């Protein structure tokens, strides 16, 4: 059943992977959705499926999130239409495996633009609205790699470390304003990320790989519960504890072996 309140869930990177699963799980809750990505055809197919199955309102926004002006225009369009974003899912991101010096600098800077700059701009715009209403929820999709620098994922792991620490700080800053900020730190998941990042799938990674459904469900539960962060999956939690409890040279060596780099 569709909810009657005038609140919407905005999901970036909604055309595949975690973004698509967030859309399905929030639609099952009856939430109105704003789906944002570059691939319009995939967004249109997904939106039609969600409308038919769950009877929810779905807006499709084709936006290049690496462009800050495009993000500002998105916020303006939604404001002019009276679309109130109560939940912001900062999911869009890009990764690439390989030695830093062997990658074109444009690719590295592109990761920073999408994973850091656009996420920061989206958060600034929509969190300002939430603070004015004294109500809102923001989920930052970070990564297990945010907890340590990982060989051959130098820029990506650093970018996700920014997302995690940015989220941690905002969790405390905005709590008194009625805005919940939570970081989701997934490990290896079957989302298509490995293919797009040209990542080597080692036997160890295949063993710990999670499906998107439980990862997304864990993120939604943590956000609704007002938690600061969540690491889904027992194996991923164990890696996080190992990172906290051991010297960097030790756990980074283990992670490099697991990642096959």
Automatic annotation (TrEMBL):
<dbReference type="Pfam" id="PF00106">
    <property type="entry name" value="adh_short"/>
</dbReference>
<dbReference type="InterPro" id="IPR057326">
    <property type="entry name" value="KR_dom"/>
</dbReference>
<dbReference type="InterPro" id="IPR036291">
    <property type="entry name" value="NAD(P)-bd_dom_sf"/>
</dbReference>
<dbReference type="InterPro" id="IPR002347">
    <property type="entry name" value="SDR_fam"/>
</dbReference>
<comment type="similarity">
    <text>Belongs to the short-chain dehydrogenases/reductases (SDR) family.</text>
</comment>
<protein>
    <submittedName>
        <fullName>SDR family oxidoreductase</fullName>
    </submittedName>
</protein>
<feature type="domain" description="Ketoreductase">
    <location>
        <begin position="7"/>
        <end position="187"/>
    </location>
</feature>
<keyword id="KW-0560">Oxidoreductase</keyword>
<dbReference type="InterPro" id="IPR020904">
    <property type="entry name" value="Sc_DH/Rdtase_CS"/>
</dbReference>
């Amino acid at each position: 059943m569709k909810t009657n309140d005038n609140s919407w869930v905005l999901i970036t990177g909604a055309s595949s992977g975690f973004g698509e699963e967030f859309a399905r799980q929030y639609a099952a809750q009856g939430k109105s959705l704003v789906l944002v990505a570059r691939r319009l055809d995939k967004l249109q197919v997904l939106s039609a499926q969600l409308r038919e199955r769950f009877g929810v309102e779905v807006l499709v926004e084709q936006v290049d999130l690496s462009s800050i002006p495009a993000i500002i225009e998105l916020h303006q369009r939604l404001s002019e239409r009276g679309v109130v974003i109560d939940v912001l899912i900062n999911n869009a991101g890009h990764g690439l495996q390989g030695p830093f010096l062997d990658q074109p600098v444009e690719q590295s800077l592109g990761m920073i633009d999408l994973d850091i700059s656009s996420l920061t701009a989206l958060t600034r715009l929509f969190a300002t609205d939430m603070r004015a209403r004294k109500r809102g929820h923001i989920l930052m999709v970070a990564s297990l790699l945010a907890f340590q620098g990982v060989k051959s994922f130098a820029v990506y792991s650093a970018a996700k470390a920014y997302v995690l620490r940015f989220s941690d700080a905002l969790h405390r800053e905005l709590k008194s304003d009625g805005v919940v900020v939570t970081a989701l730190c997934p490990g290896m998941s079957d989302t298509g990320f490995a293919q797009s990042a040209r990542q080597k799938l080692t036997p160890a990674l295949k063993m710990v790989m999670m499906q998107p459904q439980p990862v997304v469900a864990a993120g939604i539960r943590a956000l609704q519960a007002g938690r600061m962060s969540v690491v889904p999956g027992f194996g991923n939690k164990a890696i996080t504890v190992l990172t906290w409890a051991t010297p960097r040279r030790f756990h980074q060596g283990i992670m490099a072996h697991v990642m096959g780099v």
